[in-house]
Amino acid sequence: MIDGEDSAECIFRFYHEVIWQKTMVQAQGPAEDVPPSLRVCGQDVECVDEFTYLGVLIHSSCSSEPEIRRQCAMTRTAMQKLDHRLWRSRIATSTKLHLYNTYILPIVLYASECWTVNKAAVNKLTRWTSGACKESLASNGRIA
Q1: What is the mean pLDDT of residues 37-54?
Q2: Alpha carbons 55 and 40: distance in angstroms, whole number
Q3: DSSP code string of the chain
Q4: How far, CA to CA in Å, does 135 sit from each of 17, 34, 59, 96, 121?
Q5: pLDDT tens digit string along 52-103?
Q6: Cα(first)–Cα(last) distance of the chain, in Å?
Q7: Where are the domains of the chain?
């Protein structure tokens, strides 16, 4: 053990090495109160408003709205890529629904169990999913 270190700090040093170039700090609250960087263990660490962790957007507002918008945008992109090949093809409606439930819904609902939602967010998601489903089935002429 190094002089002045307790055993927990020594164990942490032995098993973990901090990569300071990738380390960021996120402050909660008003952005005007947040400094551009902090000094931690003699290293400058950037303060950020948002970052992506395990594929989920973490925002300093503690709201899930930015993540919900991001997931809807990614899902919209996936739907557009499948537009001519799948949604506008002559595949049976039941097969399209099965593919929608298998490939599209998991994109929009990724990490949704961690979202903090209000009634407006639920209504937005409901409108978006029903609109996306209606759009994908309308190409068969089944839904007007």
Answers
A1: 81
A2: 26
A3: --TT--HHHHHHHHH----TTT-EEE--S-GGGS-SEEEETTEEEEEESEEEETTEEEETT--SHHHHHHHHHHHHHHHHHTIIIIITS---HHHHHHHIIIIIHHHHTTTGGG----HHHHHHHHHHHHHHHHHHHHTTTS--
A4: 50, 43, 31, 11, 21
A5: 888 888 877 777 888 888 888 888 888 888 877 777 778 888 888 888 888 8
A6: 74
A7: 7-48, 61-138
